């Protein structure tokens, strides 16, 4: 975007208001030949400037915005994040260039429509959200987080004075973006910030009257409580989330995800019957979604991290089974998750989940009646070969569990176990 556009957006001015402000400045400066049309302003904002405006217009613009006109009509890109390449076939600099150009166009389109956003601008917001939900699954977390911040700020700006007919959708966009920021904050190890983001997301969900969004945000709280060592709190949040999910008109995969979180929490507490009951509920909730052929929940339609696919279902089941001591079922499900992620589209490949599935597989192979330390070492090697940006704080717990499994009296003196204990502590 141009610096002039950014300054006008910072002041929350529409194009017509910006022209009025400049007209008033010209009047105070006794510049009587200042005449700026919306069409001319649009060309300036888009950077379509062949020559500078006449000197009297330059003086007015510079006086109002406190910058040389050459800089105001130039482009600034410091607020445009570039997501990394999500495919092997595109050069990173090309992807960054295309992404930055699309981002600038989207920001201008939203601003140009002022308070009542046009259909195309709204469609752009939904496209950005869907892309971010997909990128969240497989792209490095920090660039995605920054882009989520940018989108949140854009939507918050539109909510400052929304068209009443558009408020519900804007709150849905804002709540989903804050929910994703809550999820990301936890994955980056900042649970306090995650709670703050989740509270804002829930407020937006209430404003949007959207039970599925509320259920998903509470699910994020449940998941973060469970993996950070507070499974009882996780079950409490999951119960609140199920109450919200029960209000859905069309079933979503969020309900299946909630069952999977409860299964892991019960397993962490050592309650095998309840953990198995929760896994059965996961299958039931997925069946409800399948039964509604031709109907898709609005939240599932966004896609990416907001949906609970079969690969993720196997991953959660693998963790649950190994916590209750059913190591063969744990190995089967963890391997199924790994194979499913590797075979599926890259945009659906959750590398963070895949790494933890490898850890669950290593634990399962190093435990139970059928010891397979060579297989456990192979799984640990797969973890070590992953880029470090896929080693999220959520991996620390499974690695501690692996170290504990390798320290039992049955295996602790085996050369393979000794070597792996050293590796899992790194």
Number of domains: 4
List segments where confidence is low: pLDDT < 50 over at least 5 consecutive residues: 78-92, 111-115
Total beta strand runs: 0
Number of helical segments? 21
Strand content: under 5%
| Content-based structural category | mainly alpha
Proportion of residues in helical segments: 55-70%
Give the integer mean of the pLDDT values: 84
Specify Rg, calculated over alpha carbons.
26 Å
- Shape descriptor reads elongated
Terminal Cα span? 45 Å
Please write the string of helix (H) and strand (E) elements: HHHHHHHHHHHHHHHHHHHHH
What kind of sheet is the major sheet?
A: none
Tell me what the structure shows.
- This protein has 21 helices and no strands.
- By secondary structure, it is mainly α.
- The chain has 4 domains: 3-72; 93-209; 231-308, no CATH class; 310-426, Serine Threonine Protein Phosphatase 5, Tetratricopeptide repeat (Alpha Horseshoe), CATH 1.25.40.
- Helix 9 (167-187) packs antiparallel against helix 10 (191-208) and helix 13 runs parallel beside helix 16.
List keywords for this structure.
single chain, 21 helices, 4 domains, mainly alpha, 69% helix
How are the SSEs ordered, and which strands pair?
Elements: H1 3-10, H2 15-28, H3 38-45, H4 55-65, H5 69-72, H6 92-112, H7 119-138, H8 141-159, H9 167-187, H10 191-208, H11 211-227, H12 231-245, H13 253-268, H14 272-291, H15 298-302, H16 310-323, H17 327-343, H18 351-365, H19 373-384, H20 396-405, H21 415-424
Helix pairs in contact: 2-4, 7-8, 7-9, 8-9, 9-10, 9-11, 10-11, 11-12, 11-13, 12-13, 13-14, 13-16, 16-17, 16-18, 17-18, 18-19, 18-20, 19-21
